[in-house]
Specification:
This protein is of the alpha+beta class. Among the domains are: about 100 residues, Uridine Diphospho-n-acetylenolpyruvylglucosamine Reductase, domain 2 (2-Layer Sandwich); about 180 residues, Vanillyl-alcohol Oxidase, Chain A, domain 3. The chain is built from 16 helices and 17 strands. The chain has a 7-stranded antiparallel sheet. Strand 7 and strand 8 form a beta hairpin. This is FAD-binding PCMH-type domain-containing protein. InterPro entries: BBE, FAD-bd_PCMH, FAD-bd_PCMH-like_sf, FAD-bd_PCMH_sub2, Oxid_FAD_bind_N. Belongs to the oxygen-dependent FAD-linked oxidoreductase family. One of its GO terms (molecular function) is FAD binding.
């Protein structure tokens, strides 16, 4: 990784997940996984052994491997995760061979990177750690959740708290390597600009297996500043959110102020209220930040004691609510024993929500109890990139993006939690984008449409929400590079021939 030119190579670890049989002749007496194993033995040369790579259902390691990177407990039972085999690919040959052999015996594959897909359709933040150890003055504009995999995050249009200054991850990718449906390994030059365009925000899993990304690092100061200030309704949170809506997308590009909305205990015993947390990253030092806030958002009352100066990589830990001084080694940790169930949804807001609208939403937040929202301001670079430059179309005219979240620990609470998050989503309907009601691919949401039988008209329902006018171009790219629709899932890009 050469930070001196703001460029670097990132080799993304890939994980190929073989799902249930798509079409295997019923006359076969051999388990399709055994056929796969036989094919792989013939295909893989001797320098690439299968030991520790291929896991069949009769292996004692099968269940732990299947569940190891599944972040959402809603999809961790083997009744939901029902693959014929799991391939833990360690090099390009493993990926290429798996694709060729799966096609040969009619097995469907699913590709898993970090296991973060909110609806479980895909199944270690080493990138930031590597950058931080190489340079103090360069960074990469992507997410702040430390357990994401770069493969899916980048290809879905991943964003983070540098987006107002530098845009999305996909705005800063300069090359990639992908294995296509023919088992060919392609870079930007050999795949062509159409496919390179499609995988930068259109979801790589519809087009192939992403092996690696070449990314452009961005310049940052050695010291950045963060703050986190919380206010309840009783402390004037509604008026502060109203002002935030006016300034957050228009303030200096160096300043990103996220609003996180949740419930808290009220001032009277046994009551609940809404708490709003204003959490920010500023690409500069405290003195200039205070001057900007005094000029643009004095109502928040930000003070020097609220501000923490740190390196950029430490700000990732700050956004993850880790204690000040936590070692960046934390970025290499990954708890594989997750027991959390969760659901995510998304929206885009183009006009400020009026006071009466906020108050109506607050009522639903209090009723729901454990559902939260994260409002992320746009403007800056997000408004300067044309919506057709990448498949991610939510650019100029968007004030902020909404993430809805619910997490719980017990399976029997699932329906209640899903109903609660839906109630808040419904309450927000009058105030978000319409025709279509836009959505963010990386906050995967099967509620907005499912295409289990590869029909174009079904895919168009969710495709128009995720990609707007870019959906048509994505379909044309899909038809050109994967006409047999080998790479598919419940919300993948279809081909026109599947009607």
């Amino acid at each position: 990784m050469k930070a001196s030119r703001g460029e670097g190579f990132v080799l993304v670890q890939f994980f190929v997940f073989l799902a249930s049989v798509l079409s295997v002749s019923c006359s076969l007496l051999v388990d399709p996984a055994e056929l796969l194993l036989h094919c792989l033995r013939d295909y893989f040369p001797k320098p690439y052994p299968l030991s520790g790579i291929v896991y069949l259902r009769n292996s004692s390691s099968f269940q732990p491997v299947v569940q190891s990177y599944a972040r959402n407990s809603r999809f961790m039972s083997l009744s939901n995760l029902n693959p014929s085999a799991v391939i833990v690919a360690k090099n390009e040959v493993h990926v290429k061979g798996t694709i060729i052999c799966s096609k040969k015996i009619s097995l469907e594959i699913r590709i898993r990177s970090g296991g973060h897909d909110s609806e479980g359709l895909s199944y270690v933040s080493k990138l930031y750690y590597a950058i931080a150890n190489a340079t103090k003055t360069y960074a990469f504009p992507a997410g702040v959740c430390t357990t994401m995999g770069a493969g899916g995050h980048f290809s879905g249009g991943g964003y983070g708290n540098l987006m107002r200054k530098y845009g999305l991850s996909v705005d800063n990718i300069i090359d990639a390597k992908i294995v296509n449906a023919k088992g060919e390994i392609l870079d930007r030059k050999s795949m062509g600009e159409d496919l390179f365009w499609a995988i930068r925000g259109g979801g790589g899993a519809s087009f192939g297996v992403i092996l690696s990304w070449k990314i452009k690092l961005v310049l940052i100061p050695e010291q950045v500043t963060g703050f986190s200030v919380s206010k309840t309704l009783e402390q004037g949170a509604t008026a502060l959110v109203g002002k935030w809506q006016q300034v957050a997308d228009a303030i200096d590009d160096d300043l990103f102020i996220r609003v996180q909305i949740s419930t808290a205990n009220g001032t009277q015993r046994g009551t609940k209220t809404v708490q709003v947390n204003f959490i920010a990253l500023f690409l500069g030092q405290t003195r200039r930040l205070l001057s900007l806030m005094s000029e643009s958002f004095p109502e928040l009352g930000l003070q020097e004691k609220d501000c923490i100066e740190m390196s950029w990589v430490e700000s990732v830990l700050f956004y993850s609510r880790m204690p000040n001084g936590t070692s960046i080694d934390f970025l290499l940790q990954r708890d594989l024993n997750t027991k959390v169930y969760f659901k995510r949804k998304s929206d885009f807001v183009k006009e400020p929500i009026p006071k009466e609208g906020l108050e109506a939403v607050w009522e639903k937040v209090i009723e729901a109890g454990d559902v939260w929202m994260s409002w992320n301001p746009f403007g800056g670079m997000m408004a300067r990139v044309n919506e057709s430059d990448t498949p991610f179309p939510h650019r100029a005219g968007i004030k902020f993006m909404v993430q809805y979240g619910a997490s719980w620990l017990a399976q029997n609470a699932t329906k209640t939690k899903l109903d609660q998050i839906e109630a808040i989503y419904d309450a927000m309907a009058p105030y978000v984008s319409k025709s279509p009601r836009e959505a963010f691919l990386n906050y995967r949401d099967l509620d907005i449409g499912v295409n289990s039988d590869s029909k174009f008209f079904k895919a168009e329902v969710y495709g128009s929400k995720y990609f707007k006018n870019n959906f048509g171009r994505l379909v044309r790219v899909k038809a050109a590079v994967d006409p047999d629709n080998f790479f598919k899932n419940e919300q993948s890009i279809p081909t026109l021939s599947y009607n």
